[in-house]
Predict the structure.
Amino acid sequence: MEDDAPVIYGLEFQARALTAQTAETDAIRFLVGTQSLKFENQIHIIDFDDENNIINKNVLLHHAGEIWDISASPADKGVLTTCYNKSECPRVLASISLSDNFYIFDFISSESRVLTCASVWRMPPEWESGSHESPDDSSNSPQTLELLCHLDNMAHGNVACVLWEPMGNGKRLISLADNHAVLWDLQESSTKATVRYSSATLEGKGQLKFTSGKWSPHHNCTQLATANDTVIRGWDLRSMSQIYCIENAHGQLVRDLDFNPNKQYYLASCGDDCKVKFWDVRNVNEPVKSLEEHSHWVWSVRYNHSHDQLLLTASSDSRVILSNMVSISSEPFGHLVDDDDLSDAEEGHQEEKSKEPLQDSIIATYEEHEDSVYAVEWSSADPWLFSSLSYDGRLVINRVPRALKYRILL
Amino acid sequence: NDSAATKTAPKSTIYPDADPAPKRRVHGMLKLYYGLNEEGKALGQAESLDPCDINGPHFDPELYLNKLRKECSLGELVDQEACMVKQIRSLDSDMQTLVYENYNKFISATDTIRKMKNDFKKMEDEMDCLSTNMAAITEFSARISGTLQDQHAQITKLSGVHTLLRKLQFLFELPARLNKCLELQAYGQAVSAHRRARCVLQQYSHMPSFRGIQDDCRAIMDQLAQQLRQKFRDGGSSAKDLSECVELLLQLDEPAEELCDKFLSHAQARLEADLQGLEAELRDSTSSAVVKASSPVIIGSPAESSMSATNPFLAPSSKTDILEFIDRGCNEFVSNLCLVIASYQELFINRLQEGDLATKNIPQMASGKLHTFVNSLAARYFSLVERRIQEEKGVGDNSLLVRALDRFHRRLQAVSKLLPGSAVPSQGTEIVVQAARERIRQYLSALQTFYLDSLTDVRQALAAPRLTVGGAAGAGPLLGSGAGAKDAPPSLPDLLSSLSTSILNQIKSVLASVHLFTAKDITFSNKPYFKGEFCSQGVRESLVVSFIKFVCQSSRQFCESAGDRGGSTPPALLLLLSRLCLDYETSTISYILTLTDEQFLVQHHTPVTAVTVLCAEAREAAQKLLNHYVKVQGLIISQMLRKSVETRDWVNTIEPRNVRAVMKRVVEDTTSIDVQVGLLYEEGVRKAHSSDSSKRTFSVYSSSRQQVRYAPSYTPSAPMDTNLLSNIHRLFSERIDIFSPVEFNKVSVLTGIIKISLKTFLECVRLRTFGRYGLQQIQVDCHYLQMYLWRFVSDENLVHFLLDEIVGSSAHRCLDPSPMEQSVIEVICERG
């Protein structure tokens, strides 16, 4: 059977930030944040109609600045956070005197005017109804995000990313800023954020900076993994202390990491050495497995939420690769069918299937992009669907090949 | 008609019997005489009964005549008559000729018969005379024998008595004679004398006088046996004496088994002494071997490997080398063993087979004993030899070992000749084979060590220039390659060639050493193992192929171990190894294998690793190394670029006055890499670029494009134009794989490195925000790179494209994008 063709959507601006609307489990919806220094930045809400292969978009304005990272609340559809560069008028910025603890590593430029902040926003409630009927009007009166609160970061530096508590109630956040990991509590309908605990601080020689992080969904959400330079560290959020450290996880910078949703000790990481590595955090000396399929830096790695053998990676070689890592998934021998489900007639058939489990393999390489792909995300509603975003503003929605889908399901 | 008839009639009257019947009878007799019976004729043709057949036996002239007259015309008759007359005439002349011819024969036959009659008469007379003479002789003879008969009987009797008397005298003198023999130690004589008398004495022992003699003799013989046994036991005597002893004892009816045991145990004592001597020597050499091991074991050069046993280099402190050891073993132990075997066989097996003792299965018993004896001693000897061989760890001089083994093996052949069924020679061969196997293993590990050591040397040589760059180091530290009068370090090609030459020489010398095992004058070289398996499995597979595989393997490890940590291996070494592997792929492997196959004519038909497989492996290793080299070098440059982008505040930078130092460094490094790669790899193919692809045309081209690309993109009316051009460009250009495999040439390598560097630059730029001057600085930097980098790559468009991307991206990331004038950029860049 023919697989559906990819659906492509183009943004006017360059973009790096992409997320699925985590709290939405019915509609396939992605949020994209644009990067433009000159124009008003936007958040595109991409609705994908699976049956008709149609994309509906809504645009919200993001006045604060160009968006480097975006993440949606796991509990409230309307709430999201962005990390953005404040790009205010240089003259104004120049007059602001800055404290010492800010931009420490860039000491020469004491009058620096670029700062990455993070804020929590709420989408205007009427965006859905307002723009649907007349898409042409949306450009005329794009609506604006409603600011809930700043994750005030003046003390901590540039925010690299903001993490929501996975499957939480949308009240807890972690922001990674320079060398600090700060845990926030949102209060009073998310309009006020307070630092809940003393933050964890990365210490060491030179200016260490978090590049990326992931909140583990396991262990009651008490663990956090962060990446800085070539090192991956695990943190216990209760004590804010380090619990493990994978030195030299990659030959070069670690760009992203992701937890296996079903196996609590397993995580995947990717980096500038073109590799994707799989780790068992109980053994930090050797990766469980290592893939080298991309021909340039790998920027993003994502486990499928339901079937953890499926793994997406995005790279600046303009490719997205979907791999099937059966051997280290939670279902290494294929989908185990309950005996109750089997009628006698089917039994032989099933046995035959289970006898030849899928091998670790590359399922597909998606080459629809023509620029570096910095972000890739699975849909939160349909586990067989994902989108990828390249720097030139092209969003591509793809599906897992049907043959494989049926193979996993049946 | 009538005339014809009348004419025939007178003719027939010539013969006396005109009647046809008697005439026919005469014919028949003649026919009988000449063996022409009528049946012979009948065989030829059916006898015609036709009376008209003129040649038939039943011919009737009347009938014939009548028939002719009736049937034929007159003309025919006349013809017939003429023909017949002609025939008759020819027949007559034939008959005449026959008679004349045979006439002489009849005459001579008659003469002969007459002569014979006379001769017989004379003979008859002579015969009569002979018979009368014979009768007279018979009569005389009878008379003589009658007279002589009485005297003859008397003489016979007398001679019988005389013999008996002599025998009796011998018996009576026997004890005295035996005693005398005993005194003179003439044991052999005594025994033979006693043997002669023994039966007689036995037979007449019932007579008292004989009994006395017998007792005396027995006592004396017991004493003699005692003395012999004593002598046998003392063992001081020579082997010949000993065997004589045994021989005599056997004749004295000593039990053979006991004698065997005694003989063997006696021999064992002496052989034990030999073995102990060997063992003591072994212990000495073990202690000295410790000393030897502490001194570094170095493989000799080919010249050294031909050195003789007196090689002081191999075992300076050892008292005995293996050849001496084996020599001693052969001369003492093996030759003594052979002697023992020979005399034993002579005494107990060959001799007894002839005698009456053979019936008692003694030969079988004796040879069984001998086999166990030989086997147990040989086993001990072998264990000593094995221990000694194991101590031969130094791989310097193989000829010594081979000669020792040869001698060892050769001497054992003597045993096999003496003792055909023995397992000893085959065990010996097994030891030799084992030693050869062990030797190959040692050579392999020596080669591997040598290879790794050479690599370390190369590494040092590569590192040396940096250390002694100011110092006036004379020649290259490692190989003293003739770099010349300058204090230049050994260049990469020199290092490569000296490395590969030294490895090749090493392989050759090892092959030469190993080849000694199969030399024609070596006895064991024609054993099936050395003819087949040793050559194919041993030398070819275990040694040569394993080494080549090891080279590839260890080269590949350089890529893997250094992969993550980065730069633990100097890039130049990677490059050098890659070229080495490539050389191996193109020529060296096939050369080495051909060499091996020629030296060791492989007759064994076990499958061997094909040249192509090894070549593929080498090529793969070369490819991997080169890829890794590109990656490492690319990363080094990438790191510089990344640092330079990340650590600068691009928003608040000042107006560009110069090209940043980093860019100059990048170009310098690229140039030096270019030189480095150029030393080892060919230029490679560039995409043909137009003759006018100088920097000027290029910069105009690129500047115009840049203008087009980002000037309009910041007008609010057309935000989509931003990427239009670059997108279109992408549509028509091939996708660039950054870390992709490279080809084996300079241009491809450099292209790879530059690709990696520029892509890093691009990605880093995209993560920063630029001010006006930041953008301008990037413009300057890119233009500078453009000026210098295009010449290194296969397709200059690639550089243009990536640099355009960089400038374009930084323009996008610029808060105040006002690009610098192209002419200003050029001025700055040209200023340097």
Residues 109 and 115 of chain B are 10 Å apart (CA to CA). Chain B touches chain A through 34 residues (CB under 8 Å).
